[in-house]
Design brief:
It contains six helices and no strands. It is mainly alpha-helical. It is globular, with a radius of gyration of 18 Å. About 30% of the residues are buried.
Amino acid sequence: MTASTTGDGPAPGGAPVLNIANILTVLRIAMVPLFVVCFFVADAQDPAWRVGAFAVFALAMLTDYADGYLARRLGLVTDFGKIADPIADKALMAAGLISLSVVGELYVWVTLVILVREVGITVWRLVGVDHVVAASSGGKLKTVTQTLGVGLLILPMPHWFWPVEWVIMGIAVALTIYSGVDYLVKARRAAGAAA
């Protein structure tokens, strides 16, 4: 067995699979069940546990920024990271959305729209490798508004703040749909240009 097949040797691109960026990605995946447990303590009605769930969610989202930054900055991009990172992102967001829908604090259709888009584009990127296009500014803003909206809904906020949360989630849904369509159009054009 060679070093590259043991999981700690260099990846095909030269970076070792066992590196700080990939460790953060795996840590983010491990934080998903921790978030769910914290969220559902006392049927999701205990403010202290909701704050704890938010802290786990926020920390996990920070690792998303950190692992991507470190991977690019230190040349630690690996095939494992390319696959595991989007899975970790979607797993965390799905956990937040589904948890909120289960307790009736987020419309199920909102969760479905976001999840269908996120899973669909992720699968497209993994399968249609020859026609992957870079994330647009709309896609990045979509991620920010989704994260902010879900994070605020997780927190036990006073009733008067709810309209702000829903405006942010509304923007997130609109950007989710727009960026998904935009991505598919650009990918289709790239496929046509390559043909």
